[in-house]
Amino acid sequence: MLQSTCQLVSSSEGDEGMSRPVELYMTSGCEHSAAAREDLEWRGVAFVEYDVERDAAARARMLTLTDGARTVPVIVEEGKPIQIGWMGRGCVV
User: Fold this and answer.
1) pLDDT tens digit string along 6-37?
2) For residues 67 and 21, what is the distance between their CA atoms, to the nearest angstrom?
3) Cα separations (Å) of 84 from 13, 18, 25, 53, 76?
4) Quick check: is 46 in a domain?
5) Domain containing 45: what range?
């Protein structure tokens, strides 16, 4: 069985000053978000997961990072979005 390396957190948590982990902005009902999560887990990438439907602060951060793009999933590395959507598809929030 594959052990998850992700952590679902609220926007009030976090460690300032440390190197930033990969961030996954997603929604629980989006199959493309689930596929992105599975890929990160399969590759053994440590990441923090934010559900932008439940966490308004995370949604606001995602919109700032993506210049207003409302598509999930969004994968962020070192504070910069490296991927919006998954395999050319995504869910709009």
Assistant:
1) 444 444 444 455 577 899 999 999 999 999 99
2) 21
3) 23, 24, 9, 16, 9
4) yes
5) 6-92
Number of domains in the chain: 1
In a domain, 1, yes or no: no
Q: What is the CATH number of the domain that holds 32?
A: 3.40.30.10
49 is a domain residue: yes
pLDDT tens for each residue of 36-61: 999 999 999 999 999 999 999 999 99
Give the burial class of 34: count Cβ atoms within 10 A of its Cβ; 0-12 exposed, 13-18 middle, 19 or more buried. Answer: middle
pLDDT (average), residues 64-93: 96
Q: CB 51: neighbour CB atoms within 10 A?
A: 21
Is the backbone peptide bond immediately before 21 cis, with ω within 30 degrees of 0? no
The whole-model pTM stands at 0.79
